[in-house]
Amino acid sequence: MGGVGKTTLVTHLYNQLLERPETRVYWITASQDTSMNRLQTSLAKRIGLDLSNEDDEVHRVVALKKELMKKQHKWVLILDDLWEAFDQQKLGISDQAKGCKLIFTTRSEKICQQMRTQHAIKLQPILEVEAWTLFIERLGHDIALSPEVKRIAMDVVRECSGLPLGIITMAGCMRGVDDPHEWRNTLEKLKESKFRDMEDEVFRLLRFSYDRLDNDSALQQCLLYCALFPEDYNIEREELIGYLIDEGIVEERRSRQAAFDEGHTMLNKLENVCLLEAALNYGSRRCVKMHDLIRDMVHQILQLNSPVMVREYSDGLPVVDMWKENLVRVSLKRCHFQEIPSSHSPRCPNLSTLLLCDNTGLQFIADSFFTQLHGLKVLDLSCTDIIELPDSVSELVSLTALLLKECNKLRHVPSLEKLRALKRLDLCGTTALEKMPQGIECLSSLRYLRMNGCGEKEFACGVLPKLSHLQVFILEGKSIAGTYAPVTVKGKEVGCLRELEHLVCHFEGHSDFMEYLTSRNKTQSLSSYCIAVGIQNVVGYSVMKGGYGISKALWLCNLCNNGDGDLQVMFPYDIQQLFISKCSCEVSSLIEHSIELEVIHIVDCNSLESLVSSSWLWSAPLTSLSYNGIFSVLKELKCYRCRGMKKLLPPILLPNLVNLERIKVEECEKMEEIIGGIRSDEEGVMGEESSELKLPRLTKLNLINLPELKSICGAKLICNSLENIVADDCNNMEILVPYSWRCLVNLKTIEVSFCKKMKEIIGGPRSDEEGSMSEESSQLKLPKLRSLKLCGLPKLKSICSAKLICDSLENIEAVECNSMEILVPYSLSCLVNLKRIEVSYCGKMKEIIGGTRSNEEGPMGEESICRAKEICDSLEEITVKRSCHSEKERATTSMFAKAPPCR
């Protein structure tokens, strides 16, 4: 039976198995038309095997079997929603694979018998008490039902026959309803349902939930459109909403952002009534997902009202007879066909959507294919290997969306002059296209244009002013053999687009950027933008990608001072991300009004001595810095290869950096301090607690290749939120974390490598501090520290000279620390979670876990070394790698003799 909770049950099992390091678990969703070839390909992908060039089934089976046999861990394969029995040997599953399991769900008991299952678990409908608990949980615990409504609601739950999916869906569609008349009406309609004779009882309940959307046809159409996507597919919200706008299901609004807001609202409503599920894809982008039973129900509705043809993961193009004249939508995603021959010329006058995307082998479409598809609105050929777009596409005058994204072999697009209804044109990633399609300037209805330069270095002049309704303009550069080549556009032409909301483009230089800023409508505010200024061909430079979700970003490159003084760059006030590369211009005075900055990256700016110049600090009224809010929302600050920079941040700015989370500084040869010390003239401005500097949200601090760096901060720094510290090639540092930073209560990892002068990771108290401290206050506590990695530190003598308490520590590694004699001093007590110790090439290492010093000796005395088991009971692994001299061999043996028992 469907809807009883099979998938939910194995999902919980899958998540539990993921937490077991000794077990590998693989999930594959089977569907009604799944072939053995697709199952093999899916499994191969999960286990890291490439079968794309292997067509012979025997060879595929052998390859799978070998790969599975190589797995050192136990593994579990979960097949969800199996519709046909199969020979397990064809998936490479051998009877000799001991400790490995195949788990599958199916609606058919017969399949269990055919698969010769060792344990068949038949899920039954849940009990009435459980059904009511589930219903109330999904309805909302905060909703108080009147006695009358509660009685009716209990009858509604009984009509759900103990099927969890039906209960959840009914609770979703009745959420917020408190009128007993509406509850009674719902109960009566359920009892009168015409779907009782269906094989699966749950369809009756799902159809009822769908029918309750009757007063919102757009919402129904939105749900029906989701059925065009493959089963168990995570549908990206923005991709789906784009289609809905193209089809007119989401009506045009005053702006594209408003239309997207309407689309998100519709999807939220469908989630709230449990007809769609919320999901995330691998990039954590928001998605929706449709339960397979709801999808089956939707397909039945579509065949009655708006016939569709949906094929997925099948092999080959549907035969001519399948292209019925009354078809409204067709989806052939991932159907693995190479061409559409001239024998296919379907007569489908009502066809509005044709999705041929994700067929990576599709190279040829005959011109005859589109000749009788005059009603087509949406044509998606994205991610195919099409070489030439047929000329007949030029006659599709009803087309509103032509999507050719990532067609990287496409060389020819016919004239688009007649496509006056076209609103969205996506040519992103068409890197082989050498000429801009003719007629783009005639697309007066165009709202969305995304493309690269089509072989040109500059976007054709005179085109943009004719596309006056553009809301989205994304002009991307190319990355060819690792070299980034921008495509520029004239600032004045972009500035004339009065309805523009989203912009990604490159301006050749400062003058074009200024031209854009001065020519655009002063009241115009872009929802998002990514503007690059002055970027030239750069090896290894990342290609700027556009799309929804990008913030407001500005890239400045190769800008320098003019002869009369500082180059004046006018920053948009709402900029969120700033990237500066190879610039010698003074920018600090120009960001004082950009109070929304969240990210700053500075690269190869050799003339800069600090993030903000001393001249600007002196000219700016210090008391107004906090008031102006400069850097008050900054989250990330990165600085690379700024050869002249000595101090990253002046202390006067720290009161504003309340949201700073990440700092990374790399290859700044003259960097002496990350945060400068406090000058005497600043103390009064910074208040009574000027001796303490605070970064309350800093979580990551990375310091790499800073040869002159002496300390992170010259004053006492309080950053309780710090989680990770990395220091690499900082050859002038002697102490990483000074004793004054005692409140590192969230620190989780410390990694220090190749710092030649490093003597101590965490410093002890200074002589002037010791007398004023009690025994408890002299202790350093790192309650969340889990990992400590030390490598290439020739002068390191100890981790910490003070008493250090970090009972959460799990892993310690020391490599080439040739001055250390004791890795873990006895003062580093209570290592109750320590699991792993590695010591490699530490020539003077005598003890891994040290004994008590003379002033610490108590009842345990010298025997404490041999009783290290009492210190770290959880220890699982000790690794010692040393040279093979006999004396050192004896030392190694001695260390193991004193080590506690390990696994």
TrEMBL record:
Domain Disease resistance protein winged helix: 228-298
Domain Disease resistance protein At4g27190-like leucine-rich repeats: 718-843
All residue ranges annotated as the NB-ARC domain in the record: 1-137
Residues of the Disease resistance R13L4/SHOC-2-like LRR domain: 348-530
A Pfam family recorded for this sequence: LRR_14
Keywords from the named record: ATP-binding, Leucine-rich repeat, Nucleotide-binding, Plant defense, Repeat
GO process annotations (BP): defense response
GO molecular-function term, one example from the UniProt record: ADP binding
Superkingdom, taxonomy of origin: Eukaryota
Family according to the record: Belongs to the disease resistance NB-LRR family.
Protein name: Uncharacterized protein
Native species: Salix viminalis (Common osier)
